[in-house]
Amino acid sequence: MRASLLLCAAILASCAAPGPLAPGAASSLEIPARFDATPAPVPQVADSLLGLFNDSRMRRAVNQALSNNPDLKGSLARMEEAGFNTRKTASELYPALDGNASAGRSRLPSVGESSDFRLSLDARWELDVWGRIRAGVTASTADQAAAAADYASARQSLAAQSMQSWFDLVAAEKRLALGNRRVTSFEDTNRLVARRFELGTASLADLELTRTDLENARADIEQLKDNRDRAARTLNLLTGAYPDAGISASSWPSLNRSVPSGVPSDLLLKRPDVDAAYQRLRAADSRVKVAHADLFPSFPLTGSVGNSSSLLSNLANSSFDTWSVVAGLSAPIFDAGLRQAELGAAGKRAEQALAAWQSTVLSAFKEVEDALGSERLLLQQEKSRLQALDAARSAETRTRRDYEAGISDLLSLFEAQRRVFSTEDDTINLHAARLQNRVALALALGKGV
Fold first, then answer.
1. Which keywords does this Swiss-Prot/TrEMBL entry list (predicted)?
2. Which residue, of 107, 178, 201, 237, has the fewest CB within 10 Å?
3. CATH number at residue 93
4. Can you tell me the distance from the alpha carbon of 371 to that of 22, in angstroms, rounded to the nearest whole number?
5. DSSP 298
6. What digits encode the pLDDT tens for the residues 182-219?
7. What CA–CA distance (Å, rounded) separates 379 from 268?
């Protein structure tokens, strides 16, 4: 069964201005009642990203990133800037009061020298008859909400990146350990073939082949060390620390399974990037109202009270005895279509915001569908790889025994060894991919930090 979700109909219907954002511009998306790629049984995802795994060292790394990452600090500053912008826009709803003071001295031939001291308070206020200022405040408030959602999204994304970088480091260290075991295994094989060569039961070519595999394995170690150090530097960079290779992570975290993933429509409530796109749509819609109100006259009020005297002491001691109040009207007569063009442009910006909102929603659903689909496939792949690894180890043991007994050739032993290490390397990659995919699923579902 499919449920139709009307996007932004309430906002568009509330727009008082005629133009491109009339109520008929509301759009709809068909949202399924369940995710298409939901595996059986439905995977369970913890309430938060940090609740996914039981690893205190990884939690500390993530919390350090949330405290020290420069990019996240920049996102926080943008959110706080949006708050000040909202206050600045809201100040236009209230009268502004300025104090002015001046002093002057002049000399005229018929009068002589004279002094002039002035003190005044000037007020100005625009009557928001058409709601232009209020619409601007609504737009700024929506911008502020979008910035807050952007910050929440940045926190979630940074936490996910830090966790996935932790998995990359664990995988890199396990591959390095596997490379060292490969070297040890090839050293054992080289010694075995050398003994047989001394006994005359192995050829020089066999001995050179074992040395070839051994030296290649030793050369691979250097690349594995570099990969491990690069993974460590990436993680340190995310945590806001100097990007050295000192950090270590050698064991997989255990995976917790607790809270069901929910239904598709939950994304519209939980994902901050979806909320940010929606708030930008609200802001764009309000700015259409601002552009529409600019077509009509404005009503500024100005007032002033003050005093002037030739003596500074009189100015300070006397009450204000001069005042003025002026009500004005300013109306556009001819601007070569400037305001109409701005209204049309504002409407098109709102249409862009609506399209961006829809695209964000669809992308969010795709991310969940991809992660759910990969969840099932990666689990099955890992199970099969583990079974293959057991079989490869058993075959390698039997082949080595047969070679020592002289009933198997060296090439069969080489092939058995390579299959063991290749399959174990694939298993490491698959387990890292499973953990990273679980993080991606939680992030796609809008789970917080």
1. Coiled coil, Lipoprotein, Membrane, Palmitate, Signal, Transmembrane, Transmembrane beta strand
2. 107
3. 1.20.1600.10
4. 38
5. B
6. 999 999 999 999 998 888 888 899 899 999 999 999 99
7. 28
